[in-house]
Design a protein that fits this description.
The chain is mainly alpha-helical and 614 residues long. The protein has helices spanning 3-22, 27-39, 42-45, 47-60, 65-78, 85-96, 102-113, 122-132, 142-147, 154-166, 170-178, 185-197, 201-213, 220-233, 236-248, 256-268, 272-281, 287-299, 303-315, 322-335, 338-350, 357-369, 373-382, 388-400, 404-416, 423-436, 439-451, 459-471, 475-483, 491-503, 507-520, 525-537, 541-553, 582-606, and strands at residues 562-567, 570-575. The radius of gyration is 32 Å and the shape is elongated. It starts with a helix and ends in an 8-residue tail after the last helix. 36% of the residues are buried. Keywords: Repeat. It comes from Linum trigynum.
């Protein structure tokens, strides 16, 4: 009889060693161990061992998802007779977190065919999958939830509220929420977060205030959702009230997620100093905290500061994620910082960061704004999936760089790929037609936008068409288009037509538009200059001089142009007619002199004849 305890001890030891191996080996070695487990019969007699095997497999998140799918099927069909509900839940959980959440729904159907009853853990996992599938209705499972007596389970009901809200049905979520007899803080938070995610932050804040009035104590997740709502509405006063409310609880200094949400809220409200103060006071900062600060500076147009914060983040040995890098690339694009943008691209490749659609689009946008079309096309071709924003970035970028035909070619390719254009896409394509003088193509696109895709043109689209027609000399057609606009034409549209009048020397129309613009924007120096140019084209020297004199009398100066230049990785800006101080001039001349002396010395060294050395 003493043999049995020894046998069981050995068996437990084997199981422990197998579990250790599974968590430390490669996927290929893992498959070999699994085969050994099956052939030894362990999978049939040790349910715990098999469950741990599957769990270990899921944790790996092998990049070859299709291979992982096939291997899971093998485990499911050949390892367990019959598979337990816990094992099915593991499979459903895995696919609910993957890029193929619809597979979790197929697994649920398979589980039902095997006559297994779902438990309280099954439906929350399925509902999480539904949250990622915007075209599916989570209420399809409601009958099953009631059938299995889980409709009163708070965990299941809260998951249903969250799934309905996240799948674009906040009204249905509110209906389920209102019928819930036990509304705990999780249910309230799901409702608040659902409103914010669906673009109704005001309703989210109302929900938060109602929760407070009913005596439900908010937790960290609730406060994060409420801060997100305040930031979306730019309600800094509510954000500050939430800040004070949470400080009084004595926990704000210890919660990195609330601190990050505060930084994000203050930045969206334009209170960068408050955001920086919260950030500096945080004892612990993670990648989300840094990303909020970087993104906030970019949103406020303070791109130099965003890059400096990113530099500090790297010095702090924090690995940026794709959201951080997207904001940094946007800053580089705005500054024209090509060298720094290329460094970020190299960092992405060097650290094997997944180039998803959002990050890839930011990289393309950076390259096209820096004039590097070939690099942008290379990134575009490398992307595994190309969404609408990716196509739009290429179309608009090529138009911006004067490649009208290339831009329209990408537009045609996008249509062939089945991606439907939006208003921004058409704006890029019409801009290409305007820059390239492609009148017929522009007319066709403008008509298709309204008639085929049922998109109402905005002021920007009309502006492109007016500019296109004006450049081509079709001034009467441009005037007619302006008169047919459903909205009030903006000064920029009249300005485009005024510029065309200067080019085509139409004095009567140009004088009328010029005087109109001066009345609309009496402090805008550009309209005075264009109106003066109209008269100069017709040798009306006195009128042109009178306009210049009027500008001086009103104290209107031309807005100086600002240029950016990147030198040795540093961004420098200078303004037209800008003067340097004496010390700046001396420093610059000293630098130039040292560079000249160094070049002369190097030139002399390079021209030494070896035969003269002896």
């Amino acid at each position: 009889m003493a043999v049995l305890p020894v046998f069981y001890e050995c068996r437990r030891s084997v199981v422990a060693k197998l579990l250790f191996l599974w968590h430390s080996c490669s996927i290929r070695q893992f498959e070999q161990i699994h085969c050994s487990v099956i052939t030894s019969g362990q999978s049939h007699h040790n349910a715990f061992l098999l469950t741990e095997l599957c769990s270990s497999l899921f944790i790996r998140r092998h990049p070859d998802h299709h291979r992982l799918q096939n291997y899971q099927s093998i485990v499911l069909h050949f390892s367990v007779h019959p598979p337990t509900i816990k094992l099915w839940n593991l499979f459903i959980r895995d696919f609910s977190k993957s890029s193929q959440p619809s597979a979790a729904l197929l697994l649920y159907s398979g589980m039902r065919r095997n006559c297994l009853h779902p438990d309280m853990h099954t439906f929350p996992l399925l509902l999480k999958s539904f949250s990622k599938l915007r075209n599916q209705d989570p209420l399809l499972f409601f009958a099953d939830i009631i059938k299995h007596g889980l409709d009163l389970d708070s965990f299941v009901r809260n998951s249903l509220i969250s799934a309905l809200a996240n799948s674009g049905s906040p009204r249905l979520a509110r209906q389920v929420f209102d019928e819930n007899p036990q509304r705990d803080v999780i249910a309230w938070t799901a409702m608040i977060d659902g409103y914010v995610r669906n673009g109704s932050p005001a309703e989210g804040l109302d929900c938060f205030l109602l929760m407070r009035s009913m005596g439900v104590k908010a937790d960290e997740v609730t406060v994060v959702s409420a801060l997100s709502a305040a930031g979306s509405l730019c309600y800094a006063w509510i954000g500050k009230w939430l800040h004070g409310f949470y400080v009084e609880s004595g926990r704000v200094r210890w919660d990195v997620f609330v601190g990050s949400a505060l930084v994000d809220m203050y930045m969206k409200c334009g209170h960068s100093d408050d955001a920086r103060q919260v950030f500096d006071e945080m004892p612990t900062r993670n990648v989300v905290s840094w990303s909020c600060l970087v993104a906030g500076y970019v949103q406020l147009g303070r791109c130099k500061e965003a890059l400096l914060v990113f530099q500090d983040m790297l010095i702090d040995n924090l690995r940026p994620n794709s959201k951080t890098l997207t904001s940094v690339l946007t800053a580089c694009a705005q500054l024209g910082a090509l060298d720094q943008g290329k460094w970020v691209h190299a960092y992405i490749d060097r650290n094997l960061i997944e180039l998803n659609s959002i990050l890839g689009t930011a990289l393309i946008d950076m390259y096209v704004k820096c004039g590097c079309i070939n690099e942008a096309c290379f990134v575009f071709d490398k992307l595994p999936s190309k969404g609408l924003y990716t196509w739009t970035a290429m179309i608009s970028g090529l138009a911006m760089n004067g490649d009208a035909l290339g831009s329209l070619s990408f537009f045609s390719r996008m249509m062939c790929s089945g991606v439907q254009p939006n208003k921004v896409t058409f704006l890029g394509a019409l801009s290409a037609c305007s820059h390239g003088g492609l009148v017929e193509e522009g007319r066709k696109l403008f008509d298709e936008m309204r008639d085929k895709y049922h998109l109402d043109p905005d002021v920007g689209h009309y502006g492109c068409m007016v500019d296109l027609l004006g450049r081509a000399g079709c001034l009467e057609e441009a005037v007619k288009l302006i008169e047919e606009m459903p909205m009030e034409p903006s000064p920029s549209i009249w300005g485009a037509l005024l510029g065309a009048c200067v080019i085509h020397k139409n004095l009567e129309l140009g004088e009328y538009i010029g005087n109109l613009l001066v009345k609309l924007q009496p402090d805008h120096s550009g309209w005075y200059s264009l109106l003066a140019n109209v008269h100069l084209e017709h040798q009306k020297w006195d009128k042109a001089a009178s306009i210049r004199k009027s500008m001086k009398m009103k104290g209107i100066d031309k807005i100086p142009g600002v240029s950016w230049i990147e030198v040795n990785g540093l961004i420098r800006d200078f303004v037209t007619s800008e003067s340097l101080s004496d010390w700046e001039l001396c420093e610059m001349m000293d630098s130039v002199w040292r560079h000249i002396v160094s070049s002369i010395y190097d030139h002399k060294v390079d021209n030494i004849n070896i035969s003269d050395c002896g």
